[in-house]
Amino acid sequence: MTNYNAHIDTLSSLRQSNLPQWQGINSEYAARMQLQNRFKTGLDIAKYTAKVMREDMAAYDGDSSQYTQSLGCWHGFTAQQMMMAIKRHQKTTKRSYVYLSGWMVAALRSEFGPLPDQSMHEKTAVPMLIEEIYTFLKQADARELDHLYKALDEAKAQGGDVAAITAQIDNFETHVVPIIADIDAGFGNEEATYLLAKKMIEAGACAIQIENQVSDAKQCGHQAGKVTVPHEDFLAKINAVRYAFLELGVDDGIIVARTDSLGASLTQKIPVSKEAGDLASQYLSFLDTQPISGGDDLLEGETAIKLNGQLCKPVRLDNGLYQFRAGTEKDRVVLDCVTSLQHGADLLWIETEKPNVEQIAELVNRVREQVPNAKLVYNNSPSFNWTLKFREQVYSQWQQDGRDLSAYPDPSQDPKVLMDASLDGSELAKEADHHVQNFQRDGAREAGIFHHLITLPTYHTAALSTDILAEGYFGDLGMLAYVRDVQRQEIRREQASVKHQDLAGSNIGDTHKEYFCGENALKAGGEANTMNQF
């Protein structure tokens, strides 16, 4: 909440004290420019958005229907368009965030070209994208306020409702929202994690997500070959991020601790246990081991450990890595989550192999036995085949209920048979789609999911929309492919992008020219501007 007239009064006093040098300055114009640039630094943004996110977390604790959402954005423009669309359609930006995906930074923002999600891209690309996103979101604020200022001037000139427009300015809701930013596994050791976290926070990030994989062996969460680190190593990096927040004065900064243990079976490091029952000994208890009678049973480079009073050695693979016992995955996830929350993390991220509310709830409920207010950030991943997985879930449930399934193909014969387009209108498909539609509500209510995100949606929407346009434009449709499927849709949806000059800042520039040059301003607008066709 601002006070437009109070800003003008403040600037008027400042101008008066600097006369005659400031005689060319208009106090109201200066006040407008101040309000259009509410956030002066990235730290201003981080402090503001951290407070927003903390309030949202508290609201969720009281009412699970108050969950939050985001989409992953790989460019400032996609984030800007997402937030402008949310504000236009939902009439508010509340509980809507931006997600910054390390996967998309690697695939789309690296100077090396497209890369896999293995932390090979420049670490500086992450804070640079955060800064870029907030630059575009602040520009969305400036554009919308510029329109309100023009409406205010028109109302003053024509005797309109000045008070109503002033109230809109005073109650203006910013497009600047929290970013949950992916720092992968920290891009190095604890010091490297701390240094990068500082850059990300200075750029505006209020929430940093870090995972328990080995930094130099990091893999995408939905691919094989993941290698996790002992808890002490991961907690040191959580501490590093917290120190970065505190050093920069973002006391409410949020840490999202991600565990990949559900799909990871490897580790490269044997931690040293100092006393029975400590974290190192719990980590060691999950390893695949062989009993030995003494040191003579050890080969060069092998290590002996004692588990439950028995001397044994961890089984080492040919590649030098150690392996966890099959069946320990869930226990490792729970221990990861509990220790992270007890040592500085605020939210959890459990990377799963399928979108199943019951599976997620089982893990979260076990965590909540020790940390009652545990909450998740959950990846509604495009790596899941949502159609297939939910049709499988419905098929399995109906099978358990004894329903007649003779009208449907048997997925045990072909795992992908339920994907057939001929089933799209079937009762099973409709029931599966109903579950997909309600997945976020159900997950928030039953599985402790505070924040739902899709990591890579704008990667896929860019690919899909470009494919559709290219097919028609370079095919038989020619220009109609653009006019019918792009421009006409923009106009009818009342998207700002149809007036691309205004969206890019042309009208703001004209306004500034009026401020700076008065009647001598050479403006880009006017009757000859083709944007007036819209």
Automatic annotation (TrEMBL):
The keyword Magnesium applies. Transmembrane segments: none annotated. The keyword Metal-binding applies. Keywords: Lyase, Magnesium, Metal-binding. Can also use Mn(2+) ion. The active site is at 220 (proton acceptor). It comes from the Bacteria. GO terms for biological process: carboxylic acid metabolic process. GO terms for molecular function: isocitrate lyase activity; metal ion binding. Mg(2+) binds at residue 182. It catalyses: D-threo-isocitrate = glyoxylate + succinate. Its cofactor is Mg(2+). It holds the Pfam family ICL. InterPro entries: ICL/PEPM, Isocitrate_lyase, Pyrv/PenolPyrv_kinase-like_dom, Pyrv_kinase-like_dom_sf. This is Isocitrate lyase. It comes from Pseudoalteromonas ruthenica.
